[in-house]
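Thread: Newbie trying to understand structure tokens

Hi all, I'm a second-year student working on a class project, and my supervisor (Dr. K.) asked me to get a predicted structure for one chain before our next meeting. I've only ever worked with sequences, so writing a 3D structure as a token string is new to me. If someone could post the tokens and maybe explain what I'm looking at, I'd be very grateful. Here's the chain:
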Amino acid sequence: MGQRLHFVVDPQGWCCMSLIIFVWLYNTIFIPKVILFPHYEEGNISVVAVLCYYFCSLFCVASLFRASVADPGKLPENPEIPITEREHWELCNKCNMMRPKRSHHCSRCGHCVRRMDHHCPWINNCVGEDNHWLFLQLCFYTQILSSYTLILDFCHYYYFLPLKKENWDVFVFRHELAFLRISAFMGVIILGGISRLFYTQLMGIFT
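---
Reply by user tm_fold:
Sure, no problem. This is what the structure looks like when written as tokens:
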């Protein structure tokens, strides 16, 4: 399985990735500042909950970058075709190169990809034979982080004890409700979309 670096020059993909990174940064900064650290200082949660959130966040962004720069299975310009597999290869009518069956030509990347599933603008890369497992990892960690964020948003208002030492002079705490509503909205949107995509991917693998 190839692990070569692969970069796609696509402004639309860069915009989509920038949006994902913004959502990740937003929650990684404000959720600990508004919920985790204050409740930890007052003894409402343990340090394990704080560390788990940061680990989930780290795994999520690491899998995003790995999926975005990993080679999805790009075919070389002059591929060596084994004699026993020549009947399973065909000519691409877009790039005029021989490719194995189940390969597809990506118009955004400009080349054929082995077992291409789709081109994902959110990682600015194709999902193919060599990075499909990385894409599934990204979906899995994103579901965990989104679910964890929504649980913390809910518990902050309906389960945890009220904070005793809130610094209302700090901008974050003066606008706490707005920050957490934005966080919850983003969490619901991302969790719904990623869960549906992850389920579709798994069903495709199983069938």
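A couple of things are worth pointing out once you decode it. The first strand starts at residue 89 and ends at 91. The helical segments are 11-41, 47-69, 132-158, 171-174, 176-206. Feel free to ask follow-ups in this thread.
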